[in-house]
Amino acid sequence: MRRVLKITLVSVAGAALALNTAACGGKKSSSGDSGGGDGKKSIKVGLAFDIGGRGDQSFNDSAAAGLDKVKKDLNVTTEEISAKPDEPDADKESRLRLLAGKGYKAIIGVGFAYTNAVVKVAKDFPDTKFLVVDADQCTVSGSNVEGACFSEEQGSYLVGAAAALKSKTGTIGFIGGVNTPLIQKFEAGYVAGAKAAKPGIKVLPAKYLTQPPNFDGFKNPALGNEAAKGQLDAGADVIYHAAGGAGIGVIKTVGGAGKWAIGVDSDQYNQPAVSSVKDHILTSMVKRVDTSVFDFVKAVADGSFQAGVKKYDLSNDGVSYATTGGFVDDVKAKLDQYKADIVSGKIKVPTKPGA
C-alpha cells in the first residue's frame, strides 16, 4: 500500500505546525529547553499517533497535550509520526523501529492497534522504554513495556446518567466508531448509567460506524453525521459518541438539530471544530491520555519506570466527566454520588454490552 506519513512538528513554545510529507522522508523532531546547566540528562521521546493524528480534537489530541506538557516541564527532544488507515502491523513496527534506531529512549504507541507492534519491537530494543496507550485487552508483556489502561466504562456510566437525567424525550443514543471490545466498554457503561439514573429511559440500539478491519469509523465525520441523523429521527435528544474524529460529525449534526451531544476523550466543548454548536455539548467523557503520556515520560526520565499495566479510572481521575458550559450543574450532585459509589465498589460497572 502507499506509505504516507503525517508528521507533526512541535515548536519549543508548544505550538503545533502540522505538515503532510509523502513517502518515507521528512520526519521532524523538536526539542524542549536544553536544560541550560541544570544538570538534568535530556531524553529523546518518540510518539506514534493513532489514525487521525494530532488535530483530531479527541483521542490523539489528548495524547498530544501530554507530550506538550512533557516538552514544557521536562528536558526532552520529541518526534511525532501518524498512522495511515488500515495499515498492517508491519508498518507500525517499522515506525517504532525507526524511532528506536534513532536513539529515542521513551517511545509511545497511541491506540490499542499498536499493542502487538510495541511488544515485538521492544524485545529488540531492551534499553528503550515503551508505552502503549489503550493496551489491547489491558495486557502487555516485556520488562521494558508499560500499558496504560482506562476504565472508560466508569466515565461513560456518569455521562450516561447525565444523558438520562437531561433527556426530555426519554430516548437517548450511543454511536461508536469501530465495533471493538474497547468501544463496547463505552457503550456498556453509558447504558448502565442511564438506566440507573432513570430506569424507564429508552436507549436506542448502539450504532457502530464501521467493523474491523475498517477503521474509518474513527476518522470520517460524514459517517458520524449520517448515524446521528438516524438516531435523531428515532427520537433521541441526547447522543453520546465514542468515535474519535468521526465524532465531530456527530456533534455538529446533533448540535445543529438543537439537541444534546456528549463528547469523548477530550473536553470537546473547547474544540475549535465544534465551536459553532458548543452550547449543545452537554458534557464529555474525559479520558486522561495526556496524563498517561506525561507519567510515562517522567518515569523514564527520573528512573522510576515500571513495566506492566497502569490503570486509570475514577479513583485517580484517569477518567471523568466535563462540566464546562455548566449544562450538568443541576445534576452534578447526583453524578458525583454515582462516582463515589463506583470508587467505593458499591456500584460495579459492566464492561460488555448487555452484561
Count every helix, treating DSSP H or I runs of 4 or more residues as helices: 9
Tell me how many strands there are: 16
CATH topology heading of the largest domain: Rossmann fold
What is the terminal-to-terminal distance? 40 Å
Q: How confident is the prediction overall: mean pLDDT?
A: 88
User: Segments where pLDDT lies below 50 for 5+ residues?
Assistant: 1-29, 33-39
Give the biggest beta sheet.
Answer: 9 strands, mixed
What percent strand?
15-25%
Q: Helical amount among residues, as a percent range?
A: 25-40%
CATH class of the largest domain: Alpha Beta
User: What is the total domain count?
Assistant: 2
Protein model, in words:
With 355 residues, the chain is α/β, with parallel strands linked by helices. The chain has two domains: 4-150 and 289-315, 3-Layer(aba) Sandwich (Rossmann fold), CATH 3.40.50.2300; 152-287 and 325-344, Rossmann fold (3-Layer(aba) Sandwich), CATH 3.40.50.2300. 34% of the residues lie in helices and 24% in strands. The chain contains nine helices and 16 strands. The strands form two sheets. Strands 1, 2, 3, 4, 5, 6, 7, 8 and 15 form a nine-stranded mixed sheet that branches. Strands 9, 10, 11, 12, 13, 14 and 16 form a seven-stranded mixed sheet that branches. α1 (59-73) runs parallel beside α8, α4 (152-166) runs parallel beside α5 (181-197) and α6 packs across α7 (247-256). The N and C termini lie far apart (40 Å). Mean pLDDT is 88; it is low at 1-29 and 33-39. It is found in: Cell membrane.
